[in-house]
Amino acid sequence: xxxxxxxxxxxxxPVYGTLEPRPGKAHLFVADAEGAEAIIEVAARDAGLMAxxxxxxxxxxxxFADKLHALNPAQFYEGPTYAASVQRLRHVLENAHQGLQxxxxxxEGLMGQAQNEAMQAGIPxxxxxxxxxxxxxxxxxxxxxxxxxxxxxxxxFVCSHCGLNLFVRDHYSRRLAAxxxxxxxxxxxxxxxxxxxxYK
Amino acid sequence: xxxxPQKAKPGGQQIPVVVSAVVPLNDLVTRFEFQRxxxxxxxxxxxxxxxxxxxxxxxxxxxxxxxxxSDPADSSTYAxxxxxxxxxxxxxxxxxxxxxxxxxxxxxxxxxxxxxDLRAKKHMFxxxxxxxxxxxxxxxxLEQSNGNWELHYACRTESLGTYVDVLSYxxxxxxxxxxxxxxxxxxxxxxxxxxxxxxxxxxxxxKGMIDWVHATAQAAGWPDAQVHSEEFLKPEPGKEFExxxxxxxxxxxxxxxxxxxxxxxxxxxxxxxxxxxxxxxxCETDVVKADGEFVHRDHWLDDEQHASxxxxxxxxxxxxxxxxxxx
Lengths: 200, 327
Ligand code: FES
Hints:
Strand content of chain B: 25-35%
CATH topology of the largest domain in chain A: Rossmann fold
CATH class of the largest domain in chain A: Alpha Beta
Distance between the termini of chain A: 16 Å
Low-confidence stretches of chain B: none
Order of helices and strands of chain B: EEEEEHEEEHEHEHEHEEEHEHEE
Largest interface: A-B, 17 and 20 residues
Number of helices of chain A: 4
Oligomer: heterodimer
Bound molecules: FE2/S2 (inorganic) cluster
CATH architecture of the largest domain in chain A: 3-Layer(aba) Sandwich
Shape of chain B: globular
Number of domains of chain A: 2
Helix content of chain B: 10-25%
Distance between the termini of chain B: 33 Å
Structural class of chain B: alpha/beta
Number of helices of chain B: 7
Number of strands of chain A: 12
């Protein structure tokens, strides 16, 4: 099951929807792992969608590339990582025109970073569709050293840059495409609760 | 000292002005220029802002909003351009017939409900008739910063093409004019096609034109947040009705030709407002009791709020029956 209902939280926390076909001159899909399933579903709702679609897909070990290919999008790109795909994403956005629809689906880290690129290219965030699929892992920024730790699955966790024990907050930055991690044992160093898996 | 209003007053603080020039532009449109009576500078404004002009018409006080169309970089003068509406409620006729150079008037601090989105990569303006006025100021503002813009301007006839001469002289490559009587129309679909990502569209004109631009842009996949419009509604006449103002403990009758807001003001009750055209939300008033039917006309409340009968925008909306308001 690739869908997960996030509990309600503070206003800062992003809320994701369900992709729907929208009128547009071109359609850009960026997805990782199980996000592929959301693309397959939305493609089934509008037969004309794929003829004007460009899919950028990062499998992250999942096995959907062939199925996406079979949708017959105008362009299909499979990248090994988001970092390796971002050049292509920027290139597509640079050459895009008004009327481009952007669909992001998969993990929060992927959607947040791709949304940031689309916003910088001039698309208001309210016009960018998102649908969460797959892992609930978070992209975290350490508020102390500013380093980013990807795919965080437990709370607290250890900052991969400075080694502090960080508490996972719902406070989110659209600009950084990351949640804030705050030192959990600053007052009493070493007093760190047992890490628990997110949403468990 | 800051130029901000010092004390909250309905409609914001007013500025005493003198009419420094009255310039007829064509059969229907006249420009009025104002300077401060104290000889000082006006507060700065941004393109798209309006001012509410107070007209003393006998014992009637009219308050009509007009877009500021002068150059925002020039703080010595504010200018508006007024189209004469022969079938209107009389404000524009008063301006045309009664206002002359040297007259003393009161105008409000500027308010902007139709501002440029300065994040835009490009600005496309669509004007219909007198809808050109806010774009005059926006264009002047963008020219200061070398902004990327183009104007598509639909006029009825060449002789009614307000400011077409100045605009096409100054910006021959950016201004495109279409005359109705020559069967020219804005090729909207083609114009919207292929614009760079991050282009914003702005439309000011008759309601049909505004709806057309919104619908066409939406069908072409433009984000709603990048299509801006301004439509000031005018209060429409209607049947007389009675209103009880609970807080002020007064009962008033709203005449056929006045708005609910005007009737409240006539009774000496202070009521908030900014646009007087159903767009800003400032005049929103709670309904205490309603016996009859609402005639909602504003762009502020959503359908659900309209249906709830709990709120009314007195600047443009009316009622058939008797109403009690929390005012
Ligand atoms: S005064 Fe602006 S909506 Fe009524």
